[in-house]
């Protein structure tokens, strides 16, 4: 027995089933426009529709609303399918609005014949001026009463490519005085002289979104058409278009709206995201700083963490802003269980242990993941010379400084207690080497009395002799402003965080040489990292996914 609906969408569906709607007739869809990559704002709609399909054992269509050939491309279609599969969802039918162009055109001709549509020969500016305002009715087009035969002839010429873009449009004849401005004779077809990715040069006219969307739902027999709140005013038009073609013996789709996913310090406009790509502010749609699903994947986010984030944020009727910290909490929680711990030094400072035998190399066993005993242990080589982080040594430390300083002791992770005795500087006065001694009896896990001696600091390290050179890419928010969506495309650059990426060249454990692209690790004391697609056999590149703790709140 299925659980009672836990959100208002499920409650709507449960109510429909209780009133006699047949469960076998349930069908959902996810209908992206292929004019860009999917982003985190789409994540909620994807999860909602596919999870509804899972709960009610109903099919879910993937439909591409490909009605604007000037902005759409096969690259985007492929990326969308790849992202949905990566999230772990599978669709029933792969559909395209372009599959229905013939039928949509046929229905449009019927509208003209019924006196419910006409060809308008005004400019787009003139049409916009006549729309009126929310408090002032619109005025009728001088072409509103154009004879049916004349509109049919002009519409045929539009279809045949006899006119330039903007010369004529086909408008539905509804009401110029409607309180809903979308009902004031909306445009349903326009001329576009561009080849379509699928239909090539077959069509010279293309249907508008509002005309295409509901009719496509009807053709596919979608039972519940779920949209974000900005489409609520479109519901009247959605229903009006259905009224013109619906067969009462068939399923009539029901549009219902939910609040979209709004994330702080993030934009979800594909137009603005495209401007970032084209302007060279990011390396591409899958740049790890981008809020695209491809970018999040490359950053190191997992399908489980993203779906957990959506579940935690919930399905609401009102818009709200979700803090980035919730998304980061979800990925930390997921990776903490999955990732092996490794040591990586991203800003190396050489440390020489004078009383450690020069010819000795020691194999130490370190636990891979204390949260997962089944992860086992790994071998790490210890030697006379190791690297530590530059930030882990201060010549003149402040009070309560528990890392390494002259005369102070710390433990090297999984190894020995060391003491800083001296430093070596270059000609500019920069510290380039720390001279230390170690306690040979203090080896971690040896059981000796000395090994149990408490010191306040523990440092990660990497052997100078046994290591792998690594490139570390650390990311911060792409935007400093909490609401970058408020900026226009032209002004977006001013909101960009100029320090959103920092690159370090350091050293990691040899274990990293055996890692594959997209493998994730916890770099001890640093955070979670994923091996980037830029990596080669001789170049190991890692992207920082998230820090071990939420440091963002401390900055703001």
In short:
The chain is an alpha/beta fold and 556 residues long. 26% of the residues lie in helices and 23% in strands.
Topology (SSEs and partners):
Elements: H1 8-18, E1 28-30, H2 40-55, E2 60-64, H3 74-86, E3 94-96, H4 101-113, E4 117-120, H5 124-130, H6 148-160, E5 169-172, E6 187-191, E7 205-207, H7 209-220, E8 224-228, H8 235-245, E9 254-258, E10 262-263, H9 270-278, H10 293-299, H11 303-313, E11 321-322, H12 324-338, E12 340-342, E13 344-345, E14 348-353, E15 362-367, E16 377-382, E17 385-389, E18 409-412, E19 417-425, E20 431-438, E21 458-459, E22 462-463, E23 468-475, E24 501-508, E25 520-523, E26 527-531, E27 540-547, H13 552-555
Parallel strand pairs: 1-2, 2-3, 8-9, 10-11, 12-25, 14-20, 18-21, 23-27
Antiparallel strand pairs: 4-5, 5-6, 6-7, 13-24, 14-17, 15-16, 17-22, 18-19, 19-20, 23-24, 25-26, 26-27
Characterization of the model:
Helix 7 (about 210-220) packs across helix 8 (about 235-245) and helix 11 crosses helix 12 (about 325-340). Strand 26 (about 525-530) and strand 27 (about 540-545) form a beta hairpin. This protein has about 550 residues and is of the alpha/beta class. It starts with 7 loop residues before the first helix and ends with a helix. The strands form seven sheets. The protein has a seven-stranded mixed β-sheet with strand order 12-25-26-27-23-24-13, with helices on one face. Strands 21-18-19-20-14-17-22 form a seven-stranded mixed β-sheet, with no helix packed on it. Strands 4-5-6-7 form a four-stranded antiparallel β-sheet. The protein has three domains: about 10-260, HUPs (Rossmann fold); about 270-340 and about 470-555, Ribosomal Protein L25, Chain P (Beta Barrel), CATH 2.40.240; about 345-460, Ribosomal Protein L25, Chain P. Helices cover about 25% and strands about 25% of the residues. The chain has helices at about 10-20, 40-55, 75-85, 100-115, 125-130, 150-160, 210-220, 235-245, 270-280, 295-300, 305-315, 325-340, 550-555; strands spanning about 30, 60-65, 95, 115-120, 170, 185-190, 205, 225-230, 255-260, 260-265, 320, 340, 345, 350-355, 360-365, 375-380, 385-390, 410, 415-425, 430-440, 460, 460-465, 470-475, 500-510, 520-525, 525-530, 540-545. The mean pLDDT is about 95. It contains 13 helices and 27 strands. The protein is elongated and about 100 Å long.
């Amino acid at each position: 027995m299925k659980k009672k609906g836990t959100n208002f969408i499920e409650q709507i569906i449960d109510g429909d089933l209780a009133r006699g709607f047949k469960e076998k007739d349930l069908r959902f869809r996810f209908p992206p426009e292929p004019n860009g990559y999917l982003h985190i704002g789409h994540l909620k709609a994807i999860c909602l529709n596919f999870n509804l399909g899972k709960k009610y054992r109903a099919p879910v269509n993937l439909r591409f609303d490909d009605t604007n050939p000037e902005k759409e491309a096969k690259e985007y279609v492929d990326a969308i399918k790849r992202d949905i599969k990566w999230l772990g969802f599978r669709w029933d039918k792969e559909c395209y609005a372009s599959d229905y162009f013939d039928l949509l055109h046929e229905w449009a001709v019927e509208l003209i014949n019924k006196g419910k549509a006409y060809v308008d020969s005004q400019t787009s500016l003139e049409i916009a001026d006549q729309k009126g305002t929310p408090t002032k009715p619109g005025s009728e087009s001088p072409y509103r009463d154009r004879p049916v035969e004349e509109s049919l002839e002009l519409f045929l010429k539009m279809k045949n490519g006899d006119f330039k873009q903007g010369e004529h449009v086909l408008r539905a004849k509804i009401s110029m005085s409607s309180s809903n401005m979308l009902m004031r004779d909306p445009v349903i077809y326009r001329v576009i002289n561009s080849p379509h990715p699928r239909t090539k040069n077959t069509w010279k006219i293309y249907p508008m979104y509002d005309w295409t969307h509901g009719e496509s739902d009807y053709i596919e027999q979608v039972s519940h058409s779920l949209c974000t709140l900005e489409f609520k005013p479109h519901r009247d038009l959605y229903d009006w278009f259905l009224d013109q073609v619906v067969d009462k013996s068939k399923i009539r789709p029901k549009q219902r709206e939910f609040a979209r996913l709004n994330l702080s310090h993030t934009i979800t406009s594909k137009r603005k995201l495209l401007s970032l790509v084209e302007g060279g502010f990011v390396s591409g749609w899958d740049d790890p700083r981008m809020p695209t699903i491809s970018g999040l994947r490359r950053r190191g986010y997992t399908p489980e963490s993203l779906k957990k984030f959506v579940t935690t944020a919930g399905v609401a009727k009102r818009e709200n802003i979700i803090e980035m910290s919730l998304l980061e909490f979800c990925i930390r929680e997921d990776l903490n269980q999955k990732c092996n711990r490794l040591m990586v030094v991203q800003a190396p400072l050489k440390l020489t242990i004078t009383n450690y035998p020069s010819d000795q190399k020691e194999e130490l066993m370190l636990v891979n993941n204390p949260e997962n005993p089944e992860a086992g242990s790994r071998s790490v080589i210890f030697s006379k010379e190791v690297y530590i982080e530059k930030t882990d040594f201060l010549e003149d430390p402040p009070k309560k400084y528990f890392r390494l300083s002259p005369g102070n002791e710390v433990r090297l992770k999984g190894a020995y207690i060391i003491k800083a005795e001296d430093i070596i500087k270059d000609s500019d006065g920069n510290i380039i080497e720390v001279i230390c001694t170690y306690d040979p009896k203090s080896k971690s896990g040896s059981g000796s009395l000395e090994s149990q001696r408490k010191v306040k600091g523990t440092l990660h390290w990497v052997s100078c002799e046994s290591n792998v050179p690594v490139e570390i890419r650390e990311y911060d928010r792409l935007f400093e402003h909490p609401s970058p969506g408020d900026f226009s495309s032209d002004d977006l650059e001013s909101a960009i965080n100029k320090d959103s990426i920092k690159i370090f060249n350091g050293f990691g454990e040899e274990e990293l040489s055996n890692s594959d692209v997209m493998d994730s690790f916890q770099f001890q004391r640093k955070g979670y990292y994923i091996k980037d697609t830029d990596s080669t056999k001789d170049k190991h590149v890692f992207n920082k996914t998230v820090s071990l703790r939420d440091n963002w709140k401390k900055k703001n």
